[in-house]
Design brief:
Blueprint (H helix, E strand, L loop, with lengths): L2 H25 L4 E3 H6 L6 E8 L6 E7 L4
Antiparallel strand pairs: 1-3, 2-3
């Protein structure tokens, strides 16, 4: 594993996580997941699809999921 590439991937993941966390204010959810994270879950959780969301600093939109039952 190339340490430079690994560092860049870690930085990208942290940045994306911060951007998704910022969506909690507008989507009114305390825990949000990207589609990639949702696919990696090892057990079932109640999830609500929030649809494609624009992420600041990223091109296009990401499918976002909220943990918890819909209200």
């Amino acid at each position: 594993r190339d340490p430079v590439v690994a560092d860049e991937l870690d930085r990208h993941a942290r940045h994306l996580g911060q951007r998704i966390e910022q969506l909690t204010k507008t989507l009114k959810g305390s825990i949000l997941l990207s589609e990639t994270t949702r696919m990696r879950l090892r057990r079932e959780f109640p999830l609500q699809a929030m649809g494609p969301q624009a992420i600041s600093g990223y091109e296009g939109k990401l499918e976002i999921w909220m943990v918890g039952e819909s209200k």
